[in-house]
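Dissemination and training. As part of the outreach component of the grant, students in the summer workshop were shown how a complex can be specified as a set of sequence lines and then modelled as a single object. The example used during the hands-on session is reproduced here so that future cohorts can follow it. Participants entered these lines:
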Amino acid sequence: MMQYVLKRVLWMGPLLIGISLISFLIMHLAPGDITTTEASFNPKTSQESIQKLRKLYHLDEPVMVQYGYWLKRMVKLDFGNSFASHQRPVFWQTKDAQGNVTKGLIQEALPITLIISFISMMLSIIISVPLGVIAARKHKKWQDNAITIFIFLGFSIPTFWLSLLLMYWLGVIHHLVPISGIHSINYDSLGAVDRIYDTTSHLFLPIVIPSLTGLAGLTLFIKNGMLDVLHQDYITTALAKGLAESTVIYKHALRNALLPLVTILGLSIPGLIGGSVISETLFAIPGMGKLFYTAVLMRDFPVIMGILTIGSALTLVGNLLADIAYAWADPRVRRGVAG
Amino acid sequence: MRQCFLLLLFALAACSKPAPSTQLQLDSVYPSQSGGVLVDAMIAEPSGLIPMIAAESASSAIASHIFNSLLRYDKNLELEGDLAKSWDISKDQKTITFHLKPDLKWADGKPLTSADALFTWQLVTDEKTRTPYASDFKLVIKAEAPDPLTFRVNYAQPYAPALDSWSGLQVMPEHLLKGQDINTTSFARKPVGSNYYRLAEWKNGESLVLSANPLATQGVPKIDKLVTRIIPDPAAQFLELMADNIDVMNLDPIQYSRIVPARTELKQKIALYKELGNGYTYLGFNLKHAPFDDKRVRQAINYAIDKQELIDGVLLGLGEPIASPYKPGTRWVNPQLKPYPYDPAKARQLLKEAGFVDHDADGTLVKDGKPLAFEILLNQNKERITSAVLIQRRLKEIGIKVTIRQLEWASFLGRIKSSDFDVVILGWSLSLDPDQFSIWHSSQNHPGQFNFINYNNPKVDKLLEQGRLELNPDKRMKIYHEFSRLLLEDSPIVYLFEGYGLPAIHKRIRGIDNPAPPAGIGWNSQDWYIPEPLRRKEIAP
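and obtained this result:
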């Protein structure tokens, strides 16, 4: 088992380099760079100034040389500075000679996105597990149909449309929740309890909406898992032994049905840090999705590469964790790996 | 347990907050008074607050509240002193001397002198400074500050756009920036300026708060605090305006003329304004490609396009046709010029003279066996796309086959800058200085330069050169009136329209000029005020 994990970890190095090289090349295939997007169409900008800027950012050199520079910095875990955002560090804060701390772009955006997507995912799980179990137990009855329709609706409704409608209905008409942002303007003058209330109410829609739309996949997985398990012999045996139905369902069946969920959760780790461009733009949340989107539009190469690298590293770790967790949860897999 | 807690939090969040029920007396008259908070929104966050480095509109929008330039434009868009009390131009027009107002102070109390202006000039022309705007200032061969109130610049030859360039260069404090790397300095995130406001707080990705600067060089503004929220989505911004969470927003024509007027509760609390826009949209020909090298073809297309139809269809009537590349209402517009009227008969006749005939009556004009057909290139801009479709139909009526191609902005720019197009729909922003050398002069057509339509008229070249050398506004005006006339006659581009700026402002904000002067409603924002009874209760300043 240890050997297996070690091998997987060692493989991640070359994989990451491959991923970063491909990302770097694709990024440079897109037309334009920071000097064409920034101040791009202002007749006051001269061609010499643009050339000077390109030179300063090494954009005039061949792509492979630029990749070399980037890799050299990455070896020291230095993600570099943004081209666009006044040279702010991409990843973590730096301190200048006067002791002024400049926070990193990812450092600021990541916690916000993590909190939102984590709670949103927890919410999805909390709702989808009982829904999936009910749908499986009442298979092809009206409860199952109702759940399927509900899931189908949640899955098909465009997020931005639902968001705008709820913003209008709950925010403008009823004044129940704030419309956008993560704090009120007067946040700093509030007491501790009011602050929690303020943040929670700001995050209410951004958390609830993706969890509603994300329910579909999870519920179907659990429902199908349950259906599979419920037809197994050991369930029939357990029922025949005279165990209560709820014990059979929740103790014997559900635990086995939850196994695929482990894989899904592992695979969703990169999604947790990715954030959603649409919902973050709509709700004015300064998270990772928004950061990445702006960076792509501005051709802010260090930021794009920083996010892609962290994202792919986490994807690899997520896959590994999912496999390990799966082996831990399921003895059959464990034996397979060891053998 | 945690799950229960989370659920509880959400239940709490869903609890009703009392709706603002105060029926404000929004239409009564109040005297001007100080205090209050104005909340507005921007779609993008500034990267830093040193505009010459940031080079983006979000940055200049905020920084213009914080910094002063030597000169500025008044409500009629004429130059006036800002930090400078007056300025002299030498006989040979090569030297400009600025006389600063006495006793100017930075927000931190240190004196603001001509040394700061000199330092700023050194900064912007420094090789290490990452700014795209250095070229105007590199023409200065000598700059000096002989005494604290005098700043003098010498040019190798007279350069008329110089005054405009000094109105765009915001003066930076030497005592805080000396020895710092301007490209990375933390000053960009905690600037100290000299204008009406100073930065009080900057919450990354959320908001910027400006508070009144008691030492402001131009006097203290009426409104105490300006809060600018970063709301990237225009639809969300509009919802915030409806919910009374922001006071100011620029509307699009549909919101302006359909949504707001249709809702009484919005009409009651929001005042709509109309100001001259900052740019115009045009259809430009690549003059190196046949048949656009033929003036008659260009004029024919100009006659065949119904500009009023575009304004009504694209802008819902909220725009103006133009006949010269200047802001309507300013002195640079030649009042004698009128846009080409919609006249398809004339268009057909001109095309016939140019040799385009429909031999087989299939509806397409042909010359030398080649049909008259071209592609309009544009970026993903809704107004431009709608315009292109309307133009396509009008040109089809006179026998021209048009296809439309949309590209993403960066790819689009690549094709434009290498002159790889037939016809393009694009916009120019209207600069306040009349000099448009870099757009129309025949020497400016190399890849990456701005005369990408390859316009070449020796007479126009000459006028553009003269205009740069003449600092006297009245003489300059004559030069540019003649330039506009030649340009309209040559028709290298078809002026489509100039859209209005459409600000919507909550009625609690008073003191706004209506109708807006040429400079727009914002020119006197320091005198805007919020009567005490109308202020937001929940925000203590």
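Residues 89 and 96 of chain B are 5 Å apart (CA to CA). Students were then asked to discuss how this feature might be tested experimentally.
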